[in-house]
Amino acid sequence: MLARFLADAVLILHLLFIVFVLAGGLLLLWRRALGLLHLPAVVWAVLLELNGWICPLTPLENRLLRAAGEAGYEGGFVERYLLALIYPQGLTPEIQHWLGILVLAVNLAVYAWVFLGRQPR
């Protein structure tokens, strides 16, 4: 039971990390110091996408699922849970590279807006 709870916790952590990478730059409007956490997360996510790596949380979740007596799954977190929501059918390495570049571009735009475009209060 504990292993299943921990597997679910890793799943939730994984999802929160993805949301943080995609939208966390907006938190800089509240506290600019959060960029010290957000920038490394964006770099990590972009590197994962551009290199086709699997996030270390995926094998951890699989180990916990197996310890709970359940089957793990093949592929990564995104393929397992978010493919239908985030990625189009027929995902190719080229599309995955463009998605990584899109994440980077969106975050660069947010950072530019926060640090260059906003007037201090």
Automatic annotation (TrEMBL):
UniProt superkingdom: Bacteria
This protein's UniProt keywords: Membrane, Transmembrane, Transmembrane helix
TM spans (from-to): 6-29, 36-54, 95-116
Name listed for the protein in its UniProt record: DUF2784 domain-containing protein
Source organism of this protein record: Marinobacterium nitratireducens
